[in-house]
Amino acid sequence: MSKKILITGNEAMAEGAIQAGCRFYAGYPITPQNEIPAYMSRRMPEVGGVFIQSESELSAINMVFGAVAAGAVAMTSSSSPGMSLKQEGISYIAGAELPAVIVNVMRGGPGLGNIWPSQSDYFQATRGGGHGDYHPIVLAPSSVQECYELTIRAFGLADRYRTPVIILGDGMLGQMMEPIQLSAESRKLKAESHKLWALTGCKGRKPNIAKSFYMKKGDLEAFNLKLQKKYKLIQEKEQLSENLFLDDAAIILVAYGSMARIAKSVVSKLRQKNKKVGLIRPVTLWPFPKKIFNGLTLRSKNLKFLVVEMSYGQMIEDVQLALNGNSGVEFIGRSGGGIPTEGQIIKKVRLLGY
Questions:
Q1: 291 and 197: one domain?
Q2: Which residue in 85, 168, 174, 261 could disulfide with 105, CB within 3.0 to 4.6 Å?
Q3: 246 in Cβ contact with 252 (< 8 Å)
Q4: Is residue 231 located within the same domain as residue 265?
Q5: Strands (E) located in 72-218
Q6: How confident is residue 184, by pLDDT bands cut at 50, 70 and 90?
Q7: What angle do CA 234, 96, 285 make, to 5 degrees?
Q8: Residues 87 and 175 both lie in one domain
């Protein structure tokens, strides 16, 4: 039977990982995501898994690299400065075509910043973050329930496409508590035996190799073309968004994660005043849900879009690219722990004439 529990966003992501079959976790403490390693340290022994508090973020991502290469279902987590340190390892995992899940509970920056919520790691996550032409899939939960469900989804996507998947939360979402419904059915991934590419010992077969190093001229380019083919397939198949009141909207708010909760409340209040306001909440930040924007611009070129972020304008670039100049795009945002309020967003909507 399914059951409902009261839990934080951080803990929900950790439990979602366990329900997905994660049995290896390596991480290093950094606020505001410390509830994840704390939860994993307790739960992993209960399910026969491995928990390691590494000596650094660099160690954690490379431990995960080794674990997933051997066929384990593995995850690490961190917050903004720690994610910067993980980028080389994430690039290596992408280059070796291995499935791994990485959680980033964003905090204010740049530099050491503070522990307040922020969304200023959008570029780092969606543009690859590390070196080379690669893309991780990026999922953005907006509730504690979604922290749980999208983490389960993340492991499935990582396994299906053999690629790193980043779950992009923030300090507000990670710390808040909400009741969630746990899955009634098991969604645990199959054991490493189904991963024919895993480094499990030859056992009479041709050896497997996990690598991203190609010395012969032309081999690396051929491999990159293979990756690009996979990324195009992901872009076609995996775009996901929540869409509200788009049929008659004159202005559409665009927000993700915690910020979308506030934007949704704004839409509700303005709708009560007969204002034609809608909302697009990207759930996949990469691939960005371009299809929904393309469909709207075909309907009308008089639409206005207002991007709302806890940053100084990062997702706005993807919105502009998706619209391809066919609609106007405005922006409101704060950073460094500042959170745009309902009142500030409503004021901006009114300034735009709505």
A1: no
A2: 174
A3: yes
A4: no
A5: 74-78, 100-106, 137-139, 164-170, 177-181
A6: low
A7: 30
A8: yes
Global pTM reads 0.96
Tokens of 331: 């922006």
- Confirm if 44 and 212 have CB atoms less than 8 A apart: no
DSSP state, 206? P
DSSP 3-state of 284:
strand
Q: Exposure pattern of 125-146 as b/e (b: 16+ CB <10 Å)?
A: bbebbbeeebbbbbbbbbbbbb
Is 17 inside any structural domain? yes
Domain count of the chain? Answer: 2
- Encode pLDDT of 210-269 as tens digits: 999 999 999 999 999 999 999 999 999 999 999 999 999 999 999 999 999 999 999 999
| Claim to verify: residue 8 and residue 146 sit in the same structural domain | yes
Question: Strands 304-309 and 284-286, how do they pair?
Answer: unpaired
Q: Do 302 and 249 contact (CB within 8 A), yes or no?
A: no
Mean pLDDT of 98-122: 97
DSSP string, 216-260: STTHHHHHHHHHHHHHHHHHHH---EEEES-SS-SEEEE--HHHH
Residue 208 domain flag: no
- Kind plus residue range of the DSSP H or E element containing 158: helix 144-161
| Domain housing 74 | 4-202+224-237
Residue bearing tokens 């720690």: 82
- Identify any residues that bridge with 254 across adjacent strands, giving them in sequence order: 280, 307
